[in-house]
Automatic annotation (TrEMBL):
Family: Belongs to the TRAP transporter small permease family.
Name of this chain's protein: TRAP transporter small permease protein
Domain Tripartite ATP-independent periplasmic transporters DctQ component: 28-157
Keywords: Cell inner membrane, Cell membrane, Membrane, Transmembrane, Transmembrane helix, Transport
GO molecular function: transmembrane transporter activity
Role of this protein: Part of the tripartite ATP-independent periplasmic (TRAP) transport system.
InterPro entries referenced in this protein's UniProt entry, alphabetically: DctQ (IPR055348), TRAP_DctQ (IPR007387)
Chief location of this protein within or outside the cell: membrane
Topology term for the membrane: Multi-pass membrane protein
One GO cellular component term: plasma membrane
Self-association and partners: The complex comprises the extracytoplasmic solute receptor protein and the two transmembrane proteins.
Compartments, as annotated in UniProt: Cell inner membrane
Annotated source species: Amphritea opalescens
Length: 161
């Protein structure tokens, strides 16, 4: 189990680094595009379109990394005055909700991904490319968050026994 968790951690880190590259893309190319446009030169076609896809990648591929480190937003004011036992079981309940929500989104994301491959659908905007180039992000991200939730639940029940 520990070996699989280490592999999952490496995959989560790779996804995080990829989202960092997307952030660098947003920072550099949008700035450069604005500067060049101010001089009347249009060098980069499709910058706005690629930035939309980069935002999707940043949000979804960072999610497993943020969740793994416990840096996600929490509203602890509701349970601040509760007992430690209540807080522990509340965290388990939250992990169960996260698990089932991510598995639900994973299922439909994977369905959409495989359907776009099967139908060979393309995105036609400024750039033209297969739709699955974008659709892979959703099931991968949700699977990684789901495995982290499973590991947290496994750790909790292992500690309880």
């Amino acid at each position: 189990m520990l070996y699989l968790y280490k592999i999952q951690t490496k995959i989560v880190d790779i996804c995080f680094y990829f989202s960092c590259l997307c952030m660098l893309y947003l920072t550099f190319f949008i700035s450069a595009d604005v500067i060049f446009r101010s001089f009347g030169v249009r060098l980069f076609s499709g910058t706005v379109e690629l930035s939309e896809y980069a935002l999707l990648a940043i949000g979804l591929l960072c999610a497993p990394w943020v969740y793994k480190r416990g840096s996600n937003l929490k509203v602890d004011i509701l349970i601040a005055n509760k007992s430690d036992n209540f807080k522990k079981y509340h965290a388990v309940l939250v992990d169960v909700v996260i698990l089932f929500t991510c598995l639900f989104v994973f299922y439909y994301g994977a369905y959409s991904f495989f359907e776009s491959i099967e139908r060979d659908t393309y995105v036609y905007k400024m750039l033209v490319f297969p739709e699955w180039y974008i659709n892979w992000i959703i099931p991968v991200s949700m699977l990684l968050v789901s495995t982290e939730a499973l590991y947290r639940l496994y750790s909790f029940f292992k500690a309880e026994s």
